[in-house]
Amino acid sequence: MMEKIFRAPILNPIDANTWRFYQDGALGIDRGIIVRMGDFATVLNQVDADVEVDELDGVIVPGFVDVHLHWVQHRVKGRFSGELLTWLQGHIWPEEARYVDTDLAQSAATRFYSDVLRAGTVMGMSYSSPHADATQIALALMRGDWVIGNVLMAIHAPSTLTDYSLHDPDALHAFMRQMNMTNYALTPRFAPNLSAASLKALGQIAAEAPCLIQTHLAESNAELQWVKELFPDAAHYTEVYDRAGLLTPRTILGHCIEMRDEEWRCLRARGSWVAHCPTSNEALGNRRMPLEQVRAYNIPFALASDIGGGPSHSMLHVMQRFLGVHREAGVSVAPQEALYRSTKAGAECMGRGSIGGDLTAGKRADFVLLPQKPAADSVEAWFEECLSGKSADLEQRTLGTWLKGERAA
Ligand code: GUN
Ligand code: ZN
């Protein structure tokens, strides 16, 4: 008898408008995989009488998915702010250059995984520094399920980064041959760091390699101006990536704020995903991502912390500000959507919709325990209460995190 049952209230996301709550729920797990989920009484009827039952004091939700962050900025998250390009040049690139030191990379990666697991994040997509060693360290020390890429940056950045970037197609090919494509993302940093020819070469690699592709798009006005100067014959920023063949259903684009209608149409046509980073956009003084447009064009998206642009790795904090920034602009958003965009949508974005992201049978038993729901509260009111408070509190709010059915934090 391998199966084990966790008994607790369960909240499972269904879609952007719907979740399902089980007041007395049960999660049956066998060898790390969910084999049944539902009302405790129903589930108990399906199993042998001697099955082990573990009662948890809290509410079970799926582990969180963070589809855009920079693990090499974790140490300095929240420490600096300011306009995107000066922030990058003045604070972020000097920090990333330090990851040439493999001892620093080891200790920072260990700390990163322990912090995100403590905050309930079990899956995500991560930008590394340009260094091959730091990237391999982040892959080797991985806890949870991550997709990681060494940032590719050839120009318009200090040589302390460009000298180590494997942007040359031959060098990149050789490196990628050693990588497991399940956990590797082709990661051009953003258009200003690569020439049109380099981007095109990456597009060719992307067409052949079965990996995810991640980059930044239209995050700030200054960035947009710079791209216009560097690529004067492109109709818009999105076209710079599209011409290179980098926009695919496996592509995840961070931010997407300063976008024209044609650009949304292009993303829709290519089936690419948006990583929406509300806390980072606020911290760096960028505008609100136009959620109304994303909805109107039916663009798939998931939520992300974008640390170190975002001040916290807590997806509860990201959910809080997702609801906050759009409501403050008069756009209606529900807590159901906050949970869905931080779990199931993230897994789908990463091509892992059949593996994780929610608590249905057949998926990996990666879950989080949230504080108990008072009987008198509605599920909506209780969930929004779970999102309230300062980011430092939210980083500690989850009561525990389980990976493949085993307690991990
Ligand atoms: N654009 C290019 N690089 C970065 C980065 O590291 N963070 C953010 N927020 N935007 C970027
Ligand atoms: Zn980013």
TrEMBL record:
Annotated GO biological process: guanine catabolic process
UniProt superkingdom: Bacteria
Gene Ontology CC annotations of this record: cytosol
Entry's Gene Ontology molecular function annotations: guanine deaminase activity; zinc ion binding
Domain Amidohydrolase-related: 59-377
UniProt xrefs under InterPro entries: Amidohydro-rel (IPR006680), Metal-dep_hydrolase_composite (IPR011059), Metal_Hydrolase (IPR032466), Metallo-dep_hydrolases (IPR051607)
Names of the cofactor(s): Zn(2+)
Lineage, uppermost ranks: Bacteria, Pseudomonadati, Pseudomonadota, Acidithiobacillia, Acidithiobacillales
Species the sequence originates in: Acidithiobacillus ferrooxidans
Keywords, in A-Z order: Hydrolase, Metal-binding, Zinc
UniProt-recorded name of the protein: Guanine deaminase
Classification via Pfam families: Amidohydro_1 (PF01979)
